[in-house]
Design goal:
Blueprint lengths: L4 H12 L4 H19 L6 E6 L5 E2 L6 E7 L4 H19 L4 E7 L8 H13 L3 H10 L4 H4 L1 H5 L3 H11 L2 H16 L7 E6 L5 E8 L4 H17 L9
Helix pairs in contact: 1-2, 4-5, 4-8, 4-9
Length: about 240
Amino acid sequence: VLMPTLPRQVAVFLLGLGLGVGITLGIDQLTIQNARTENEPTVPSRIEGLMIEGSPALGPIDAPVTVVEFSDFECPYCRGFHDEVLKPLRRDYIDKGLVRFVHKDLPLPFHREADLAARVARCSQANGNYWQTYERLFDRQSCLTCEGAAAVANPNTEVQKQLNRCANEGATRTLVNTDRSEAALNGIRATPTFIIGPTIGPGKHRGEVHEGAMPWPDFRQLVDEALSQANSSVDTTTEAR
């Protein structure tokens, strides 16, 4: 890290006075720490205009609360969410019409199979099998490197060929890259990341940002808070449910 001109001149001057290299090293270290702090991106606490139209979704389009997930099929923390949180969320909220759950892809560059897995899942969406593929990819996450995403998604070899062809098409790559670009534009860089808030429409979303996996009781509390916000925004003349 290059030190700004003025502090470096001061350091050289002090060194010339015989005050020792310790002061110079201290100034250098302070400059490095400041540079890291300035360059380190911050996680947004809230997002106002997230595009969700066309993304895979569970639950009714008019559910009072929407939960958007940015996820990576090779991420162990994302699998933890799938195993420990999504199942009770689906049972207690999504299936009861209280929550709409939306998936967006954020395959991380150091996960070698994640991008292909995301594309294979999107190809399954065209056949109406997205969420079955979603579950298989997480349930057999450890097999992605040895079998490949298409084989994990479907045991039928002909279907695997179709999935791989579709996954390599430009349009499929664009779907995943669009989610990746939107994550970058909104300051989302880790998986899993969730945006939770009252539903505002089928194509856009806004809400509080929560980065990282968490236990089901904590996640449920966030959903309940969003439901309270959604209910409080309803006309007060409407009878409470």
